[in-house]
Specification:
Helices cover 29% and strands 29% of the residues. By secondary structure, the chain is α+β, with helices and mostly antiparallel strands. The chain binds flavin-adenine dinucleotide (FAD). The site of flavin-adenine dinucleotide has 39 residues, from helix 1, strand 2, strand 14, strand 18 and helix 8.
């Protein structure tokens, strides 16, 4: 049976590990620190279907179905919070968004709300209802670290092996053939390697001399105490560049606005107060609750992006048995299940031509 080494125990690596373990492969998950401590550990966990790129929307839907199904399984220990999701398109994209919402509504609970319908339903939250919004009543969010633990436990039960506290220093190869990974615990032989190391994937590709366009961007999300506001849906707003969700546990709303910062060091970072001011200013254009709001913390971390050349769940050019599962552009939670399926599909093609097969 071919052996696959998955590098990185964030949600993406955990889902790949889970997917391959359940299909009977000999899978090893290697995590330098502890599971779920990268971008996954600070993520809002919003899982929704809509994206103004139809292909991405259908990929998101795979994640939405996966997480809802997992949460329904007795004893899974994870929850899917159906807080609802609103997507506000930019003005010039509104007709296309409305059209795509109509297409998706044939298979998914996705609908378009006109500004009047938005006012009637969410008028207590919104200062501006233009240009209307896509509404997903059955979308929401998950707790990403709990998800990591749940899928890793299931993968372990299916025979997968987990190496926490084991850092991968390099991918080993013999010409174009992948032979394993060099780690702090020695060399692990493997027929294929999946790089799911988030923001730390780029150095592993650099060491192999592989050209890529992976880079980091900084995401900051401020936690805003909003007394009296309940049932706040998750949201993406392309008109005012906002994203976030409610946090019922603290009576607050997570509110994010692009920092514009690239190539930052990996891992969590202290909040930038000037960014908080920019975020609240942008938020005031959309939300009624931002006046007098009290920011009280939040999260700030580097996330792995690609400009589109280094696609996730693809073989690295020149190394068929080396797959990148990184560069999720701020969408790794909802896209993770699609990445896992696609990685299994690509590996099945690659490994049948070598020593065996990773079942689909
Ligand atoms: C503030 C914030 C909010 C977000 N909100 C959402 C959201 O609402 N919905 C959504 O879909 N996405 C969201 N995202 C994006 C999403 O969280 C990420 O895309 C996703 O968590 C990436 O998961 P990952 O497993 O690829 O990377 P990570 O979670 O970063 O995991 C990579 C892991 O690899 C390990 N690792 C690194 N190098 C090595 C090595 N050499 N050897 C062994 N292990 C290694 C790290 O320790 C880490 O555990 C958000 C991101 C941020 C920063």
């Amino acid at each position: 049976m071919p052996r696959v080494a998955v590098v990185g125990g964030g949600l993406v690596g955990a889902l790949v590990f889970h997917r391959l373990s359940l299909s009977g492969a000999d899978v090893h998950l290697l995590e330098r620190h502890r599971l779920g401590m990268g971008a996954t550990g600070v993520s809002g966990g919003v899982v929704r279907c809509f994206d103004d790129d139809p292909e991405t929307a259908w990929r998101n839907a795979i994640g939405w179905r996966f997480f809802r199904q997992l949460a329904r399984q007795p004893g899974s220990g994870v929850r899917f919070q159906p807080a609802g999701f609103l997507y506000f398109p930019a003005l010039d994209r509104a007709p296309a968004a409305r059209h795509l919402a109509g297409e998706l509504s044939r298979e998914l609970p996705v609908t378009w709300l006109t500004p009047d319908l938005l006012r009637a339903r969410f008028g207590h939250l919104l200062a501006d209802t233009s240009p209307g919004a896509v509404w997903e009543p059955a979308s929401g969010y998950v707790a990403p670290v709990a998800m990591v633990q749940a899928v890793v436990a299931a993968g372990r039960a299916a025979g997968g092996q987990v190496w926490e506290g084991t850092e991968v220093h390099a991918v080993e190869r013999d010409g174009a053939q992948i032979t394993g990974v060099r780690t702090t615990a020695g060399v692990l032989d493997a027929d294929a390697v999946v790089l799911a190391a988030g923001a730390r994937t780029a150095p592993l590709l650099d060491a192999l001399g592989v050209e890529h366009d992976l880079h980091t961007r900084v995401i900051q999300v401020d936690l805003c105490a909003v007394g009296g506001v309940t049932g706040h849906p998750a949201f993406i707003d392309d008109l005012y560049d906002l994203h976030g969700r409610g946090d019922p546990a603290s009576g607050s709303v997570y509110l994010g606005h692009p920092t514009g910062l690239r190539d930052a060091p990996c891992g969590p970072q202290p909040l930038d107060a000037a960014q908080t001011v920019r975020t609240l200013r942008a938020g005031a254009a959309r939300f009624a609750w931002t006046s007098g709001v009290r920011p009280h913390g939040g999260v700030r971390s580097a996330e792995c992006y690609t400009a589109g050349r280094t696609l996730p769940a693809r073989s690295v050019p020149g190394f068929p048995a080396l797959i990148t599962a990184a560069g999720l552009n701020g969408a790794g939670i909802r896209l993770g299940p699609w990445v896992a399926d696609e990685t299994a599909r690509v590996l099945a093609g690659v490994l049948t031509t070598t020593r065996g097969s990773v079942a689909r």
